[in-house]
Specification:
Layout (H helix, E strand, L loop, with lengths): L1 H6 L8 E2 L12 E2 L38 E3 L2 E3 L11 E3 L17 E2 L2 E2 L24 E4 L8 E4 L2 E4 H13 L1 H12 L4 H9 L18 H11 L4 H10 L3 H7 L2 H12 L5 E4 L14 E5 L2 E12 L6 E7 L9 E7 L5 E5 L11 E12 L10 H38 L1 E2 L2 E2 L4 H30 L8 H26 L9 H9 L9 H13 L1
Parallel strand pairs: 11-14
Antiparallel strand pairs: 1-8, 2-5, 3-4, 5-8, 6-7, 9-10, 12-13, 13-17, 14-15, 16-17, 18-19
Helix pairs in contact: 2-5, 5-9, 7-9, 9-10, 9-11, 9-12, 10-11, 11-12, 11-13
Amino acid sequence: MAHARAAWPALRGAWACSPGMGWKPRQRAVYPAPSQADVQPLGRIPRRFIGGRRRGPPGARGLGPGGRGARVWGRTCGGAGGCPPAGRLLVSGGHAPQARGAAAGGGTALRGVPLAGAVGHPPAPAGGRGGVVGRAPNCVRAESDEGRGGPALAGGELRTAADWTAEIRGFVDGPAERWSEEIERTGQVSAELWGELVARGYLRLAAPAAYGGVGLSLSDYLPLLELFSRAHGSIRMIVHVCNGVWRPLARWANEEQANRFLRPLVAGQSICAFTLTEPHAGTGADIQLSARREGDTYYLNGEKHLITFGTRADHLLTFARLPGTRGYDGTLALMVPRLSPGLEARAQSEAMGLRGTDHAHLVFRDTPVPVANRLGQEGEGIAVALRGFLHPSRIGVAASCVGLAQKALELAVARSKVRVTFGKPIAERQAIQMMLAEMATDVQAARQLVRWAADVWDAGPEDGAGTAEAAAMSKLFGLEMLQRVTDRALQVFGGAGYLKDSLIERIYRDARAQRFEEGTAEIQKVTIARALLG
């Protein structure tokens, strides 16, 4: 806690609850300081003023001395729309059994961090999206005048988003570089690396605190994923998958399933692989893996392939369909133990990039799976896949594209200053300057699109409906941007960049995987077109 206090020096007041404060979904409100006799809401802050995106005019309501506005998770709210001076109270939500990533009896939360039982806080009502700003009424918490952002829970200690950023940046620039060299040399991700990622808390950043995660919202987590993407592609892949595969379980698992599958997964005690793609099916609605039901058991027959972590996962979140059904009808989401009878996991050949990331071809031959391992109901399998995992994961892939492209751009800029042709650095040549300018613009445009898509997700309904278009747009632009930027970066390096000992060569190879991860560009375009045409 000493660390938390040092990072949050101007914390004011304690917890305050007022029975009369109404609460509406997805609202963030700022309240007067608890020292005042009556804590009354100043009203909802318009979304355009949250996050420092716009500033109100000088003298606007709520401005403190010098025109300084309140801070919401480290971002300035410029005083307009009811913002009070800095150091005020930020409403936060909680977790509930029906919430995304919620648990029974959980207390309220600040940006997804539960405080069960703290100062008489009541359990949160049903309906909150775990891991992001929730919906628990009547509870507020003081925020720092320093504006460093709200805390996140890690190992029983409150930590700020800024703390996570600094730590992860240090990891990426230090230990991750050494791990990257080992992965490229051996072609494998060691158990020691997995263990270090678990111990550092990196594989539970986005998971709800109610299940042992840090509880960051998607908007707060993605900048951290962008940092990881500057490291080796396999390290990024581990972080990305583990921080997303919990989502369908948190949404659809019952309490017994949460205890068996979700909590061990968040704790890093087990690995789960998302198992959708088949040799002759790609979009999900055309899956062919058959699930024949006999009593309390399903028997699976068919194949899956290109399954990331399919040879090392403890459980496979597998999607199948009842015989005789088509489209979304009759689809199932099943948690299948990898060592189940009749299930064969074959390691596929090494990929072009992402060395160390294993991919499996799975063959099911009358593989038994208890009905008790089904998430949701029969017919909800594709909803579990898309709304539970793929939509937010596509935004995560887009953020990964931004991080890797940013690294390629920085390498290209540095190379242009030292590579000399005809007596002067190529950075002085207008052709190279134009190329670098276009690369930088591409990266920043993709970054802003990712932030918008994350905001859409965080503000969306519980089932993630309506986020498909935003997720597809961010992924489409991100992956195509990454190809352009890495292609030009390699051009700046010239022939030297084509050699195996060149970092840009590895980045160029890893970037190609984003073309296929969570759906091709063509699938994203189909998704966007459907949203446009109704």
